[in-house]
Amino acid sequence: MQVIAGIDLGGTNIKGGLFTTAGELLGKKEIPTQAAAGPRAVVVRIADLVRELVTEFGQGHTLAGVGVGAPGLHDFAQGECIFSPNLPGWRNVPVTTWLTELLGVPVKLDNDANLATLGEFWQGAGQGANNLLMLTLGTGVGGGLILNGQLFRGPDGTAGELGHMVIWLDGPACNCGNRGCLETLASATALLRLGREAGLPVKEAREVMQLATAADPRAIEVVDRYISYLAVGVASLVNIFNPDLVLIGGGVVKAGEQLLAPLREKVARLALAVPAQRVKIKAATLGNDAGIYGAAALFGDKR
Q1: 179 secondary structure, DSSP code
Q2: Which UniProt keywords apply (predicted)?
Q3: What Å distances lie between residue 138 and 47, 149, 205, CA to CA?
Q4: How far is the C-alpha of 17 from the C-alpha of 116, rounded, in Å?
Q5: What's this model's pTM, rounded to 2 decimal places?
Q6: Domains assigned to the chain
Q7: Structural element, H or E, at residue 263
Q8: Is the Cβ–Cβ distance between 100 and 55 less than 8 Å?
């Protein structure tokens, strides 16, 4: 039997999973990235992790390929990391060339948010949808697009940067240099900031949601405003792409229908009638494993 390794490379940790080509997860492991050691050392650690996965979970099987997801801008065709903000010194790093030399199998590289979307499409909440977009609400807002059953990257590989859609011209400053990007208003970080600005004694975004559940009037107002910001972004994307499905991932979605029910109502009111009637808005289901599923999907059986 052939197996595939899916790798999710982050600034702090490297997650890896071994899969069948049909998408069954055989086993997974996580190791520290040790990014300060430099790009080559990190790629060697990825190769070592792949070998460990095969030894522990793939005995007697053939490794068919390795998919790697990493933050930043990548040349998908060349398998090169052009730049990654979370990995010091990562400029024009030939990831796939190095890994192929180390492991002797084909390797593909893509953006981590793209692959989280692809993972949900392949084996998660996106199964059955032909056109979907995903927003991951965390420190920022990650995004990805599946159009006509294919991951859409754009000619420069930058498509899907949904968190940097400007929804308020004079809004809060974003790390990208603009103001009022969706991620400054609809990320978990933004929810925490809005809660503190309203005088709530909170240390994490989830506490704002909990206070709203407990009928704190300030928290209720903050959560409503937060969901309104998110709805503006989602409605705009629904109008542009006419998707079958919008998936919401990240820690904030643990609030469940407290977040999703009012979001659906606001999007239905803000979006054009025809695409609003079609689109479903649901929670992503693969959680922190979406990235390794998506990386494996680069070599997995097509749906």
Answers
A1: B
A2: Kinase, Transferase
A3: 28, 26, 10
A4: 14
A5: 0.93
A6: 2-116+289-298 (3.30.420.40), 128-285 (3.30.420.40)
A7: helix 257-270
A8: no
